[in-house]
Amino acid sequence: EDKVVQSPLSLVVHEGDTVTLNCSYEVTNFRSLLWYKQEKKAPTFLFMLTSSGIEKKSGRLSSILDKKELFSILNITATQTGDSAVYLCAVDGSSNTGKLIFGQGTTLQVKP
Amino acid sequence: DTGVSQDPRHKITKRGQNVTFRCDPISEHNRLYWYRQTLGQGPEFLTYFQNEAQLEKSRLLSDRFSAERPKGSFSTLEIQRTEQGDSAMYLCASSLRGTMLSGDTQYFGPGTRLTVL
User: Fold this and answer.
1) Which of B69, B67, B61 is CA-nearest to residue B25?
2) Which of A17, A26, A86, B90 has the greatest number of beta carbons closer than 10 A?
3) pLDDT tens digits, A4-62
4) How would DSSP label each residue in chain B?
5) In whole angstroms, what is the distance from residue B12 CA to residue B19 CA?
6) Is residue A30 less than 8 Å (CB to CB) from chain B?
7) Is residue A29 within 8 angstroms of chain B, CB to CB?
8) Are B42 and A42 a contacting pair at CB < 8 A?
């Protein structure tokens, strides 16, 4: 059965810290891995990764995919209180339907 | 606002009642997805449409659930004879069909939070 596992499930840091969130997956037909940020509302899109070793970067956030070891990491540098949210990892392991399989999410709390 | 919209945002109903939710996708998107999210969990896939055709349904979708996308634009999700276990956030997402290699980027609406008493 296809599955996505995120770790840690929760994390508390102080402003300015750097965090690394992990996502491992087992799917039959990998097409892409996506990261979303969810703040008590709809998940908002962060990154889509399809190729190994190519870092995607947006401001203080970056992500990379390892298709050999079947995992991805999301890094947040110089964290701010506004980064507090649930970070969701999802994998499109479909045969072209686009159906996403989500992990449980990592709850990040950034303290002032 | 050109994002995905959902209505209503909150719904409280009594067990046994029927409820219907609406989703309006981003206008040029041909794919529309429904997911369900319970507290502390990631969203779970329910069903998806490409244009007006419903192409896949999850085993989670019992026969009390039905979804339509009659003209390939907005979609409705109806739950008949609601049960307390149906309480959840119902999320809609839309995408433009990607290439065979790249996959789709799905954009989510704000969700409808259903509480069944």
Assistant:
1) B69
2) B90
3) 999 999 999 999 999 999 999 999 888 899 999 999 888 999 999 998 888 999 999 99
4) --S-EEE-SEEEE-TT--EEEEEE--TT--EEEEEEE-TTS--EEEEEEETTEEEEE-TT--TTEEEE-TTSS-EEEEESS--GGG-EEEEEEEE----TTT-PPPEE---EEEEE-
5) 9
6) no
7) no
8) no
Over the stretch B52-86, which tens digit does the pLDDT of each residue have? 999 889 988 889 999 999 888 999 999 999 999 99
Asked if A4 and A103 count as a contact pair (C-beta separation under 8 A), the reply is: yes
- Contact list in A for residue B48 (CB cut-off 8 A) is 97-99
